[in-house]
Amino acid sequence: MTLFPRWTLAILSALSLTVSALADPMEMRASRWVQIGARDKHERSAIANEGVSIEAIRTDSVWGFATETQLAQLRKKGFRVLGNFDFNLGRGGHQGGFDFPAKDAKYHNYSETVSALKMLASSHADIVKLTSIGKTIEGRDIWAIHINTSPEALANNSSSKPGIFYVGNHHAREHLSVEVPLMFAQHLLKNRDDPAISQLLNTRDIWIVPMLNPDGAEFDVSTGSYKYWRKNRRDNGDGTFGVDLNRNYGYGWGTGGSSKDTSSDVYMGPTPFSEPETIAIKSFIESQPNIKILLSFHTFSELILYPWGGKYDPISNKQDLMVYEKMAKTMAGWNKYKPQQASDLYIASGDTTDWAYGERGIFAFTFELSPANQGGPGGFYPGAGMIDKAFQDNLKPCLYLLDLTDDPHRAVSGSSFGFLKNYIAPRLEPEHFWN
Ligand SMILES: [Zn+2]
């Protein structure tokens, strides 16, 4: 009897090849799709603290992106790596000239997003203005669409009406998070004569940035196949690229669930607000003191998240906590997402919503859009068919937030708009959206 048949030896020699390949420092720092055993938020936070970007949660494990260096650290701490896949993620330079794979052509790349916004602005010039709120690290404009029925407010980029801010695409590969806010802008404007919509447009100041991270989004599709890119495109000067924009905000920055390792998918950056994209948001919000509500779109998992993300404590202001819980629960009734405090997943510090609420008192939510779950990282690329579903699921939540913008506390005082109970969205022909 042979203890080690030939095929075992073949596998062993393949394994030793893998190990020697992994000794290469850049290989050790390359992003891999992994499954790691974890049963609760404390174990998940310990994993996030190693710099792993957790993307899907199961009762007994998490899936996410990690480097071999991070996995080695986790193994030392007793964590079990259950799956480890090389997708050749995010390597190689910018090759340019390519776009979304043909089957996903309905998704908007940067120039298509800008064109769609310009078309809206030109066909509704009386109540819409496009404004660049800053430039990315590669010099692309970060476009905001400003909707306000007051010409003075548009001219001055400033309004006394209660304001709301919707933003998508902090994370490059989360392309669906561009589509939903873009379609929401289109919906509001194409239905501006609908009595309920018109009432909201007349009394609210609306800002929408569908694509905050165009450098990353363009890079993600730059070879014609997806690169699973998450961060911006900061050259970190050591052969790695990118800062995680949703770990770079200045409230509780660097206090857990983010990494100092430049190759990590959750690299926090050298300092809070080190990136032009997060600085743009900070300056913009600070210039608009009327903004009361913020909604940041991400993918995926079908979740409604609210502060805190950087600590386990609930919001200490009991009234605000009640408002958050009521709003989240109400919206979950429409989109069927799971509402929860962000840190119930795992600790993640330096995100948009902790800063917006902690520093500015803005009621701030993160939506993790569809799909709910996925065995592999394909959840970031759910196909063109998901666009309309994600928009329809979230139209009422978006309108609800818009309604409550004058006073989010109305969510619990019972005087919130009744119109949504019976609101039937005027349905547009899908091709209207793809121009
Ligand atoms: Zn995200």
Description:
The protein has 435 residues and is of the alpha/beta class. It has 2 domains: 6-85, Alpha-Beta Plaits (2-Layer Sandwich), CATH 3.30.70; 102-434, Zn peptidases (Aminopeptidase, 3-Layer(aba) Sandwich), CATH 3.40.630. The chain has helices spanning 6-22, 25-28, 41-49, 68-76, 110-123, 151-156, 176-190, 195-203, 214-220, 276-287, 318-335, 352-360, 385-404, 410-413, and strands spanning 32-37, 53-57, 61-66, 81-85, 128-135, 141-147, 163-168, 205-209, 291-299, 303-306, 338-341, 363-369. The strands form 2 sheets. Strands 5-6-8-7-9-12-10-11 form an 8-stranded mixed sheet, sandwiched between helices. α11 (318-335) packs antiparallel against α13 (385-404). It is globular and about 60 Å long. It starts with 5 loop residues before the first helix and ends in a 22-residue tail after the last helix. It binds zinc ion (ZN).
What labels describe this entry?
single chain; 435 residues; alpha/beta; Alpha-Beta Plaits; Aminopeptidase; 2 domains; 8-stranded mixed sheet; 4-stranded antiparallel sheet; 14 helices; 17% strand; globular; disordered C terminus; binds zinc ion
Strand fraction equals 15-25%
Q: Taking Cα atoms only, what radius of gyration do you get, to the nearest Å?
A: 22 Å
What binds here, in terms of ligands, is: zinc ion
Number of helices: 14
Any idea of the CATH topology of the largest domain? Aminopeptidase
Indicate the mean pLDDT.
Answer: 89
Structural class: alpha/beta
| Overall domain count | 2
Low-confidence stretches: 1-22, 90-96, 428-435
Name the CATH superfamily classification of the largest domain.
Answer: Zn peptidases
Which descriptor suits the 3D outline? globular
**How is the biggest beta sheet arranged?**
8 strands, mixed
> From the coordinates shown, what is the CATH architecture of the largest domain?
3-Layer(aba) Sandwich
Number of strands: 12
- Give the termini distance in whole angstroms: 69 Å
Could you name the CATH class of the largest domain?
Alpha Beta
Instruction: Give the H and E element order.
Output: HHEHEEHEHEEHEHHEHHEEHEHEHH
**Residues in helices, as a percent range:** 25-40%
Which strand order do you get reading across the main beta sheet?
A: 5-6-8-7-9-12-10-11
Oligomeric state as shown? single chain
